Structures are given as structure tokens and as C-alpha cells.
Amino acid sequence: MANQKTDFEYLTWILNHRFACKDKNWMKEEKVAKGKRSQRVEIYSGPGIRGYELYEFGDKENCRHLPFFNNTNNHKDLPNAPSGLIAFCDYILLVEFKQLLHIVLIELKRGSTTHARLQLEASKVFMQYVLNSAERIKDDNNMEMFDKGKILFRKVIITQNEKEPLNSHLPKNFNKNDVLTYTTSKDFYIREIL
């Protein structure tokens, strides 16, 4: 058998490179609404991380990654799309750690986290579709060892608290919906949430 890619390499091969962030060391929310300031978070990998790639699939106004869904909200001649149909998280982080692929779904929030769970769940469904596609084509692409069942998901809401001391970034426990709320002043440590 020829040299096979890791699961991490395989998924980064499958996902469209135009959605990969040019600078994978920063996440940002720059839309300023309702008096909120922009949010900017620096990413640190930590020991044992073999590689990571950050993807941003765009906001719901553009919906470039889901072109087959109705996106007619606020269009005067067409009915609005069903609620929650085009919800999506801000970032998807693929991480290779201890020879396992981790898919970290990330939603940045500067205020209420009410709709974050919906965005994270919609993104998980999207990534499960990507994994199902990867499973379907693995034999034709020399990826016989790929097993989507080994891939781990993490759902993270990053809230910003500029008043927190610099070292107070330690995450809380995952809640009953398997979502971690990570409060930080500006830093996100990947290794702490895996």
C-alpha cells in the first residue's frame, strides 16, 4: 500500500482551500452591531499538536458554502427562508493531536449566546456530511484506513471578557449539550479543549 495521508491531511485535501484562513493564528468578529466592539482572539496550539487548519465559511448573508439552501431573507419579492436553515458557526478548526483528528466548531460571541448552540449543531451536521463524503470516496483515493468513527468533535463558544486577567482563559466544563464556553480576554489555547 502506498504512503497514506493522515485523516487531518485527507480532510484538508477535501475541503475547498478558498475557505481556509490566510492567517490561521487569529479568529475575529468584526461586525460591529448594537454597540459591541470587534472581537479578536489569538490561537495557540500547544504541545502534542501536529498540525491545525482554520476554516471560515462566511456569514449567512453570503452563504457561499450552502448554495443549495434558500437564502431569501429580507428579499421583498420572496418569502423568508425557514428559521435556522442557514445557521453556521464562525470557524471550523481541524486539529491533528495524538494521531487523531479533532473537529472544533467555534462560535465567537460578544453578547448573548442564545443562538450559538443552533449554529454549532448546524455546523456539525455539515461536517458530518463532509465526513460521510470522505468515507464514500476513501477507497478510490488510497485512504482505506480512514474511519470517520475515530474523529472527535468539540463545540466551543468563545466569549470575550476584556476585564479578565490574562491567565484566566481556562475553559469551563462541557455542558449537557456538549458545548464548552471558553471565556478569554484574547487568547485561545487549542490543547486545553481537546
Q: Major β-sheet, in short?
A: 5 strands, mixed
Oligomer: single chain
Strand-pairing-aware structural class: alpha/beta
Approximate helicity band: 10-25%
- Any idea what the radius of gyration is? 18 Å
Instruction: Give the strand order of the largest sheet, numbering strands 1, 2, ... along the chain.
Output: 3-4-5-6-7
Total beta strand runs: 8
> How large is the count of helical segments?
2
Mean pLDDT: 82
Helix and strand pattern: HEEEEEHEEE
Low-pLDDT segments, ≥5 res: none
Strand content: 25-35%
Q: Globular, elongated, flat, extended or rod-shaped: what is the shape? A: globular
Explain what you see.
- There is one protein chain.
- With 194 residues, this protein is of the alpha/beta class.
- Helices cover 15% and strands 27% of the residues.
- Strand 5, helix 2 (116-137) and strand 6 (152-160) form a beta-alpha-beta unit.
- It is globular.
Short descriptors:
2 helices, 15% helix, 194 residues, alpha/beta
List the helices and strands and how they pair.
Layout: H1 7-14, E1 26-29, E2 39-44, E3 49-55, E4 91-97, E5 100-109, H2 116-137, E6 152-160, E7 179-184, E8 187-189
Parallel strand pairs: 2-8, 5-6, 6-7
Antiparallel strand pairs: 1-2, 3-4, 4-5
